[in-house]
Amino acid sequence: MSQSNESEDTPKKELDFLKPALAGGAVTSILTSLFTLVSTKAKLPALQITCCLWLLGGGALATYLLNKQRPGRLTYGDGALVGLFSGVFAAILGTLLGIPIRLLIAPELQEAVDQFQQQSAQMPPGMRDMILPLMEPGINMTVLLIGLVLGLIVNSIFMTAAGALTVALLNRKKND
Fold first, then answer.
1. What is the pLDDT of residues 33-82, one digit of tens each?
2. Which residues, other chains included, contact 154 with Cβ-Cβ below 8 Å and sequence gap of 6+?
3. Angle 150-20-12 (CA atoms, 0-180°, nearest 5)?
4. What 8-state DSSP symbol labels residue 72?
5. What is the DSSP letter of 15?
6. b/e string for 57-96 if b means 16 or more Cβ within 10 A?
7. Residue 165 · residue 83 · CB < 8 Å
8. What's the DSSP call for residue 76?
């Protein structure tokens, strides 16, 4: 029997998706939260665009850690699945981290509310009355739930794509 048949016949070790997904999600949510805090306090909103980079990096990190369990033999589905799980963990942890951050940036939020009230004169009153409570400083369950749902969607999309893409890069490296 040849070596290639033996390696194909040996059972594959079960992958542990949980630890890599938790690591990717935690790194993503912590970095995104820190950059949100810093960019808001420093009044540099352009810095918040880096959250997309953290999403891609977190999905790639989770896939890289998963690849260490079975080097060079991950499928695109494995990478996408660990990326999806990372996105879910990042959204949940990011929502929890968002609570103290929202309290820390309360003065900046109040400034934004004041500016909105001044600039919203042309806006229909019903719309202004709907948006204003969502902008108020402090903890608002509606804002947290909206943030969680949007985080679940956006994080999952970006991190799933990053996971599959990382498998392609790892497999390419193996073939070179």
1. 888 888 877 777 777 777 788 899 999 999 999 999 988 789 999 999 99
2. 55
3. 125
4. T
5. P
6. bbbbbbbbbbbebeeeebeeebbbbbbbbbbbbbbbbbbe
7. no
8. H
